[in-house]
């Protein structure tokens, strides 16, 4: 319990400890704390910004949806109109085609009729000749009387 | 192992209150003091090896631990050690910010060093009062020393040299910053021109002088007195040991109760020393107080 040289030794020790602490211990820790504080503040600000951006984005999305609805309705209208047009076109096409087919069929029928008529005419003339042969009981020279038969056949 | 047959209670207490003093004795020459009288006869040019060893050990421990954390410190998610260190640093920084209005990058590290160092030195008080001195005595006995004359005080703050050492350094800083901030004239004016104006100069000087001198003395004596008294109570309780079973049990319970209470005291004293240092330095930095 005597005051002795320990006093000065302790003073020096204390000064050295304080100096060491001030140079190597305190600054890095306090800097890290300040840095973390800044980071947290930054994070909070970013979160706030994020919130705002989200609100903006939602608004924008709503606007886009509204726009999309309008344009979709427009497109549907156009499509319906186009569909009607197409149907009308198809109808008229079909009508034309039908007419054409009808005309063709009619022409064919006419042709068939004519051909049938020709054939019939020929057969009837043959039959007539055959019948005349039988009636006359005598052979008529077909070649000699061909002009007569033909004129007959034409009258049918 | 406390009050053995060979030691009276008085000797036991005396033994615990004597430092391991190394110095030049006028008769026995250079060496360790064999009793408190010899330590006193060595006069000023002696050194308390135990105080020096434990204070440097504990201060080194503190700086080693904090430096280790400071090297790996990250602003990201802190680990357990960093969390602990940050908790203390934050606590000290809060106190400095609350009490110290000036700008001085030295005050906060100074406060941290004081708080941690004083706390650790006080903490040695919680080790069983006989444990380390007994082990050290047995250890020295291996080298032929008489264990009853091997002294060891493991609580540096019960040595006034340690507390006055710190308080004087604080006092030197108070004087240095007083002069640096206010100039020699300002500082002298503060000492002599208030509270009674320039016609009451002698009275002012006495009042302000006492208030100035009382700062380091109260700082040192408060810490020393608290720790010395706490240590003394541990020693007195330890005197109960070695008797009947009832006395031993009572001593054990009392040691525990006092140790629990002492946790409060050691923390409080470290805190008070730190806060007063901050306040004194703040006063040194201010123009008027």
TrEMBL record, chain A:
Keywords, sorted A to Z: ATP synthesis, Cell inner membrane, Cell membrane, CF(0), Hydrogen ion transport, Ion transport, Membrane, Transmembrane, Transmembrane helix, Transport
Name of the protein in its database record: ATP synthase subunit b
Membrane topology: Single-pass membrane protein
One Pfam short name: ATP-synt_B
Cellular compartment(s): Cell membrane; Endomembrane system
HAMAP family, alphabetized: ATP_synth_b_bprime
A GO CC term assigned to this protein in UniProt: proton-transporting ATP synthase complex
Organism: Marichromatium gracile (Chromatium gracile)
CDD domains given in the database record: ATP-synt_Fo_b (cd06503)
Similarity section: Belongs to the ATPase B chain family.
Subunit annotation: F-type ATPases have 2 components, F(1) - the catalytic core - and F(0) - the membrane proton channel. F(1) has five subunits: alpha(3), beta(3), gamma(1), delta(1), epsilon(1). F(0) has four main subunits: a(1), b(2) and c(10-14). The alpha and beta chains form an alternating ring which encloses part of the gamma chain. F(1) is attached to F(0) by a central stalk formed by the gamma and epsilon chains, while a peripheral stalk is formed by the delta and b chains.
Reported function: F(1)F(0) ATP synthase produces ATP from ADP in the presence of a proton or sodium gradient. F-type ATPases consist of two structural domains, F(1) containing the extramembraneous catalytic core and F(0) containing the membrane proton channel, linked together by a central stalk and a peripheral stalk. During catalysis, ATP synthesis in the catalytic domain of F(1) is coupled via a rotary mechanism of the central stalk subunits to proton translocation.
InterPro entries xrefs: ATP_synth_B-like_membr_sf, ATP_synth_b/b'su_bac/chlpt, ATP_synth_F0_bsu_bac, ATP_synthase_B_chain
Transmembrane segments: 6-26
PANTHER family: ATP SYNTHASE SUBUNIT B, ATP SYNTHASE SUBUNIT B', CHLOROPLASTIC
MF (Gene Ontology): proton-transporting ATP synthase activity, rotational mechanism; proton-transporting ATPase activity, rotational mechanism
From TrEMBL, chain B:
A Pfam short name: ATP-synt_A
Chief site of localization: membrane
Localization, UniProt: Cell membrane; Membrane
Molecular function as annotated in GO: proton-transporting ATP synthase activity, rotational mechanism
Protein name: ATP synthase subunit a
Transmembrane parts of this sequence: 44-66, 107-125, 162-179, 233-250, 256-281
Top-level taxonomic group: Bacteria
Any one GO BP annotation for this protein: proton motive force-driven plasma membrane ATP synthesis
A cellular component annotation (GO) from this entry: proton-transporting ATP synthase complex
Family: Belongs to the ATPase A chain family.
Lineage: Bacteria, Pseudomonadati, Pseudomonadota, Gammaproteobacteria, Chromatiales
Membrane topology, record value: Multi-pass membrane protein
Keyword line: ATP synthesis, Cell membrane, CF(0), Hydrogen ion transport, Ion transport, Membrane, Transmembrane, Transmembrane helix, Transport
Database matches in InterPro entries: ATP_syn_F0_a_bact/chloroplast, ATP_synth_F0_asu, ATP_synth_F0_asu_AS, F0_ATP_A_sf
Function, in words: Key component of the proton channel; it plays a direct role in the translocation of protons across the membrane.
Keyword field contains Amino-acid biosynthesis: no
